[in-house]
Write a structure and sequence with these properties.
heterodimer, A: about 260 residues, alpha/beta, Rossmann fold, 2 domains, 4-stranded antiparallel β-sheet, 10 strands, globular, B: about 300 residues, ABC transporter involved in vitamin B12 uptake, BtuC, 15 helices, binds adenosine-5'-diphosphate, binds magnesium ion
């Protein structure tokens, strides 16, 4: 089976700085893959390239064998790639329900005329959107907060809402950028179960996370990034025992 | 009581209220662009003028039926709205503000120098076709349509753009296209408003649609509450009636508007009704609360 996502010799240069240099890796369908590395290693930049926020300076991104390099972000969401943001980017002044409804955008069609005329087809679509939003909120356990404003949620709940909003687009591939950041141990445990449940629903997951216990406990495969380059990759055991990784990354943590 | 009778029978008051409705239509359009979609527009009166001249010339010179001329004025304004929006929607904040401001001035200067519009002397002899009934029907129709927009996939996409463009694009929203659509609808409403204005006053002049008018429209929207339809209605009602009934307000109009704007920015940046969603409040109040014993633990 071809890989779901294939990154081929991806580089990106900002001004004089090469943030990501000749990165190649693949993500197979159904896996939970983690991207780890010290701060500034280029993990979020890789996410921004996959999701179309940045266009790589060179190299290609393939999704289901289709070249999607440089396509606009809104199109990439339509192909089936959804994401969350390291710095939470919710629609703060909208309700939890509306945030997730907006997540359904790429799976619905009604435009301006549909809004005004509200024909039967459009009403049906709206019901579908509301149902899909409810399902997504149930997955992350926020169903009872659907009428709250996003900005009034706790930090942990805001992170969960980002996941629900991304799920609403029915993605094949879900990119999670530091979903556990700022959560306490109990919340992290819950989040881990949640990500496993999402994975069981058939969604492939690419994860950036700093918490090593979290990463080792959940990943099928780990890719280690340092100074914009891949320095190691493999199973959690392989990566944990790799001297290069210990030197570059885990060593610093262990000190 | 006497006051109510006066207002409903006195032609002067009817004129004032009709004019208020005319401005309300333009303000509702601006609210969609600035309040809902979050895009600055400092040249909204220019689109009123495009609608005003287009429809006036069509009824005056070509005997086009009034309502058709209104529609043509609205479409012409929207066309120019799109022509401005396509290159400038990649700009944000201040830059977009300055571009729209500049566009407004260009339109005014073009009308001053155009032969067919009567130049700086203006255009007179426009048939008086606008009345309170037409304006009232159109106001109700547009408010109804805008409510539907706000509660739709389309309207949610506009609000998402206001809240966070990058997140909106990442949710599958073609931000550029939706901004242009928002501009088209908002400027269409300004064009309709301009057509009504021309056929109410029977005389138009480029000076009627300068920056001061654009600023006034922005005030109507900001004071009531950016993004809120009831807020726009409230802001337009209070600010367009006050100068008619309070003499000192008329004399110091710009000063008072400026002062109000500053006060609002400081004390209530979202406007009087901004951030108040009546529907959401009601749903919250009406929703059954779970028993206290069950609501803990999350
Ligand atoms: N838009 C940008 N402009 C300039 N430099 C950037 C930009 N985005 C990221 N960088 C730089 O790229 C490097 C990698 O950043 P990032 O991908 O955010 O790291 P990580 O997520 O691994 O902590 C950093 O040096 C950062 O400053
Ligand atoms: Mg990062």
């Amino acid at each position: 089976m071809p890989p779901l996502l294939k990154m081929e010799n991806i580089s990106i240069v900002f001004g004089g700085l090469t943030a990501v240099e000749s990165i190649s890796f693949e993500v197979e369908k159904g896996r939970i893959v983690s991207l780890i590395g010290p701060n500034g290693a280029g993990k979020s930049t890789v996410f921004n390239i996959i999701s179309g926020i940045y266009s790589p300076t060179s190299g290609s991104v393939y999704f289901l064998e289709k070249d999607i390099t440089g396509d606009r972000a809104y199109k990439i969401t339509g192909y089936g790639i959804a994401r969350t943001f390291q710095n939470i980017r919710l629609f703060k002044n909208l309700t939890v329900a509306d945030n997730v409804r907006i997540g359904c955008h790429s799976r619905s069609r009604a435009g301006f005329m549909g809004a005004v005329l509200r024909a039967g087809r459009v009403k049906g679509e709206e019901r579908g959107i509301t149902d899909r939003a409810k399902e997504s909120l149930a997955v992350v356990g926020l169903a009872d907060k659907s009428e709250d404003l996003a900005k009034n949620l706790s930090y942990g709940d805001q992170r969960k809402l980002e996941i629900a909003r991304a799920l609403a687009s029915s993605p094949e591939l879900l990119l999670l950028d530091e979903p556990a950041a700022g959560m306490n141990a109990g919340e992290k445990q819950g989040l881990m179960e949640m990500i496993k449940a999402i994975s069981h629903m058939g969604v492939t997951i690419l994860l950036v996370e700093h918490d090593m216990k979290f990463v080792m406990g959940i990943s099928d495969h780990i890719i280690v990034l340092d100074y914009g380059q891949i320095i190691a990759s493999g199973t959690p055991e392989e990566v944990q025992n790799d001297p290069v990784v210990i030197e570059a990354y885990l060593g610093k943590e262990a000190d | 009581m006497q006051a109510i009778i006066d207002i409903t029978t006195n032609p002067y008051y009817i004129q004032v209220i009709t004019m208020m409705g005319v401005y309300l239509i333009a303000a509702l359009g601006l609210n969609l662009i600035t309040g809902v979609t979050g895009q600055f527009s400092f040249g909204h009166a220019a689109y009123m003028s495009i609608g005003a001249y287009t429809s006036a010339l069509l009824t005056k010179n070509l005997d086009l039926p009034f309502l058709l001329s209104l529609l043509a004025g609205g479409l012409m304004a929207a066309l120019f709205g799109v022509i401005l929006a396509v290159p400038s929607m990649r700009l944000t904040g201040d830059y977009l503000g300055i571009t729209t401001l500049g566009f407004g001035e260009i339109v005014r200067v073009v009308f001053i120098n155009m032969e067919i519009t009567g130049g700086a002397r203006g255009l007179a002899g426009i048939p008086r076709s606008t009345d309170l009934t037409v304006v009232f029907i159109l106001v109700v129709l547009f408010i109804w349509a805008l409510y539907r927009i706000n509660n739709s996939r389309f309207g949610r996409a506009l609000a998402a753009i206001r809240e966070d463009e990058i997140a909106a694009e990442s949710m599958g929203i073609n931000v550029f296209l939706y901004k242009v659509e928002s501009f088209a609808i908002g400027t269409f409403l300004a064009g309709i408003s301009g057509g009504l204005y021309a056929h109410l006053l029977q005389y138009i002049n480029p000076a009627d649609f300068g920056f001061a008018k654009s600023f006034e429209l922005l005030n109507f929207v900001v004071i009531g509450g950016l993004g809120s339809i009831p807020g726009t209605v409230l802001g337009t009602t209070v600010l367009s009636l006050a100068p008619e009934f309070l003499r000192f307000v008329k004399e110091y109009r710009m000063l008072i508007y400026g002062g109000l704007m500053v006060l609002m920015m400081i004390f209530r940046p979202h406007g009087i009704l901004g951030g108040v969603d009546l529907g959401r409040l009601l749903r919250k109040v009406l929703r059954k609360k779970p028993p206290a014993a069950l609501s803990g633990g999350n």
